[in-house]
Amino acid sequence: MHTYSSKLLEEVVEEFATLPGIGKKTALRLVLHLLKQEKRDVEHFGRTILRMKEEIVTCRECHNISDSDVCHICSDPYRDKQTICVVESIRDVMSIENTQQFTGVYHVLGGIISPMDGIGPADLTIESLVNRVKTGGCREVILALSTTMEGDTTNFYIYRRLQEYPVTITTLARGVAIGDDLEYADEVTLGRSLLNRTSFEETFKHSKHGT
Known about the structure:
Elements: H1 7-16, H2 24-36, H3 39-55, E1 57-58, E2 65-66, E3 80-87, H4 90-99, E4 104-108, H5 126-134, E5 140-143, H6 149-162, E6 168-171, H7 187-195, E7 198-199, H8 200-208
Parallel strand pairs: 3-4, 3-5, 5-6
Antiparallel strand pairs: 1-2, 6-7
Helix pairs in contact: 1-2, 4-7
């Protein structure tokens, strides 16, 4: 337990400690570091965070974070707009981009279906995905969600919603990605799971029959 000589210092440490993965000791170290910096550097630091909060928006096409109405991936003329990779979060987009193996576009759901947490299909961007496929021009939808029960439930729900449209639905190769979250898979392994993706229907049949 730290004894602070400044109430304001204590308040700033408490704020830093609310960040994920930041304990009180790390928070104190960061705050003391900022305290030693030039005033203009700290002001720039603060302004940058405020600008991030005020100016970063959500891409109207894929729901990724962006500096403009349409993100740089969706607006890139060299990306394959016919292939949409469906992911849970923005961090998953970053993980897949780091593999340099995917040249299509994304669709960020903003989570996965989890009744225990009160998250249903209406809380995600699934309807937006259906509309993207419905308007045509999409050849393949890759379901790149975690291999958890919630991830599988979400995959199956999306599969059922897209069944009526002329689009191929695939999923990442099972057993290739390390862990349940794409964020923690190494780039080579994740890249390989993208290249070796399989038909979701076949994957579902095998899992249904326990093979």
